[in-house]
């Protein structure tokens, strides 16, 4: 992940290397969020607000998930505790806290207790750099609805996600049991591999915005959301965020048929609740990052944003649009869980390493050249059609990449035809059961031919071989 991080930082730093070309820097007119009128106690208030916001949303989304999947499966879901069953999640949490806290005899007790704390705490840290809304008035001060912002805020999310992996692998190792260890290793490999593709998918947004600051990325989308120019990056990010959070159809660390529950098999009571809480908070974190990077963050949709000179983009309205976009992603998580079966682990890992990462790297190169031509780094030659001006370098580059893609598809198709021909070749009518050195039963429709060496000869020569070896 560090290699991807440094590569992304180097690529996004290209526009800023030309300090003399201030007109080409996308963020010359968009400084980062101003926290100068925010006293220290107001930072604490906002931190408490973010913590309560995530806890309440977690309680609601668990009820929402059970109700929606219940409707999809033609059953009511929780409907007893509280109105419409709204208090069912709270009741389950209280029941879970009152259960006996068990620690396996062979467990490393210190690490066993530390692992869920790491997994749960890291889930909350990433939300600190997410802008929930514009600057608002709170207790007589003008402060942004964001806990903090730094020049490399998005890299902080990737770094925190990397630290969260320690909670998973330490939980599996410290349990002193085989199944949790296998589940922890499987989940760690899955999360790390999909973090690479996730980081690469965000590089295109860095190139378009010219910054890694979340507030600046949101400000740069006031005219065009990046889901349109960086559509492929959005597609890759959506896949990787599901794999990153261990959710169906990619919850391979919890394959009950293989690992009985994964890395947290031996956990109970509040320790198990921390993993459960961390999973759902991570869902909100990756959804909030997708909203910030691709859907304009807290900004209103284009049609609504134009009403009354953008009145719906000011004040507390931004929090409403942000929550709506956030919950669209949460519904997507629930819809996937109720619709798709779990994939096979080797297929999922092969898809990440052999498809997502190479294709996303190629996409980043394409976006880098297109963005460079738009900023004038490759000359001013352009093709004018009507009132629109298309840089000539971009056109030539896109044509070359398209031809290369068509060639790759053609080669892949020919390889596939060859593989299908070999796979569909008729089986021989006669087979030698000892041709490979081991007895192999015939397939349906086949008959055995005379073995290359009869069993009697093998049994007679076996003592001779043993005596020779002795």
Structural class, judged by helices and strands? mainly alpha
Q: Order of strands in the sheet with the most strands?
A: 1-2
Stretches with pLDDT under 50, minimum 5 residues? 1-28
Give the end-to-end Cα distance, rounded to a whole number of Å: 55 Å
What does the main sheet amount to?
A: 2 strands, antiparallel
The count of DSSP E runs of length 2 or more, i.e. the number of strands, is 6
| Rg, Å, rounded | 28 Å
Membrane topology: Multi-pass membrane protein
Region (Disordered): 427-470
EC number: 7.1.1.-
Keywords: Cell membrane, Membrane, NAD, Quinone, Translocase, Transmembrane, Transmembrane helix, Ubiquinone
Report on the structure:
There is one protein chain. With 470 residues, the protein is mostly helical. Helices cover 60% and strands 5% of the residues. It is built from 16 helices and six strands. Helix 3 packs across helix 11. The chain crosses the membrane at residues 40-64, 110-130, 150-171, 192-212, 224-242, 272-295, 315-336, 348-370, 390-412.
Give the helices and strands, then pairings.
Blueprint: H1 2-12, H2 14-17, H3 40-72, H4 88-97, H5 109-125, E1 133-138, E2 141-145, H6 153-174, H7 178-209, H8 214-219, H9 231-244, H10 256-259, H11 269-294, H12 302-305, H13 317-339, H14 345-374, E3 382-385, E4 388-391, H15 392-423, E5 430-431, E6 447-448, H16 455-469
Parallel strand pairs: 5-6
Antiparallel strand pairs: 1-2, 3-4
Helix pairs in contact: 1-7, 3-11, 3-13, 5-6, 5-11, 6-7, 7-9, 7-14, 9-11, 9-14, 11-13, 14-15
């Amino acid at each position: 992940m560090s290699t991807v991080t440094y590569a992304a930082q180097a690529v996004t730093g290209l526009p800023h290397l030309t300090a003399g070309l201030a007109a080409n820097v996308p963020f010359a007119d968009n400084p980062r969020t101003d926290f100068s009128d925010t006293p220290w106690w107001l930072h604490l208030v906002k931190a408490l607000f973010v913590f309560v916001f995530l806890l309440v949303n977690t309680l609601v989304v668990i009820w929402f998930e059970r109700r929606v999947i219940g409707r999809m499966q033609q059953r009511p879901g929780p409907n007893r505790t509280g109105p419409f069953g709204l208090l069912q999640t709270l009741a389950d949490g209280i029941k879970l806290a009152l259960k006996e806290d068990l620690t396996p005899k062979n467990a490393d007790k210190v690490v066993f207790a530390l692992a869920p704390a790491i997994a749960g705490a890291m889930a909350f840290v990433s939300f600190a750099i997410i802008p929930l809304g514009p600057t608002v008035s709170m207790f007589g001060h003008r402060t942004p609805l964001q806990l903090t912002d730094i020049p490399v805020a998005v890299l902080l999310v990737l770094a925190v996600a990397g630290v969260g992996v320690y909670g998973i692998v330490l939980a599996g190792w410290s349990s002193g049991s085989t199944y949790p260890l296998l589940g922890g290793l499987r989940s760690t490999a899955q999360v790390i591999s999909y973090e690479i593709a996730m980081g690469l998918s965000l590089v295109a947004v860095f190139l378009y915005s010219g910054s890694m600051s979340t507030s600046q990325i949101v400000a740069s989308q006031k005219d065009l959301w990046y889901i349109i120019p960086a559509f492929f990056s959005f597609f890759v990010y959506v896949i990787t965020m599901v794999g990153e959070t261990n959710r169906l159809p990619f919850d391979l660390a919890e394959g009950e048929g293989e690992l009985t529950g994964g890395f947290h098999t031996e956990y109970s009571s509040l320790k198990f609740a921390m993993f459960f809480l961390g999973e759902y908070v991570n869902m909100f974190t990756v959804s909030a990052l997708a909203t910030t990077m691709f859907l304009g963050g807290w900004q209103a949709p284009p049609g609504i944003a134009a009403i009354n000179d953008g009145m719906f983009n000011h004040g507390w309205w931004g929090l409403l649009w942000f929550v709506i976009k956030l919950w669209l992603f949460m519904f997507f998580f629930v819809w996937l869980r109720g619709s798709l079966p779990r994939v096979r682990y080797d297929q999922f890992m092969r898809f990440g390493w052999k498809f997502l990462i190479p294709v996303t790297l190629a996409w980043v190169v394409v976006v880098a050249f297109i963005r460079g031509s738009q900023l004038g780094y490759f000359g001013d030659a352009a093709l004018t059609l009507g009132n629109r001006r298309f840089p000539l370098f971009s056109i030539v580059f896109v044509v070359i990449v398209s031809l290369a893609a068509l060639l790759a598809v053609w080669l892949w198709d020919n390889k596939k035809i060859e593989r299908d021909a070999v796979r569909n070749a008729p089986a021989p009518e006669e087979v030698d059961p000892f041709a490979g050195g081991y007895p192999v039963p015939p397939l349906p429709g086949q008959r055995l031919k005379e073995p290359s060496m009869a069993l009697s000869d093998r049994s007679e020569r076996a003592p001779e071989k043993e005596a020779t070896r002795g």
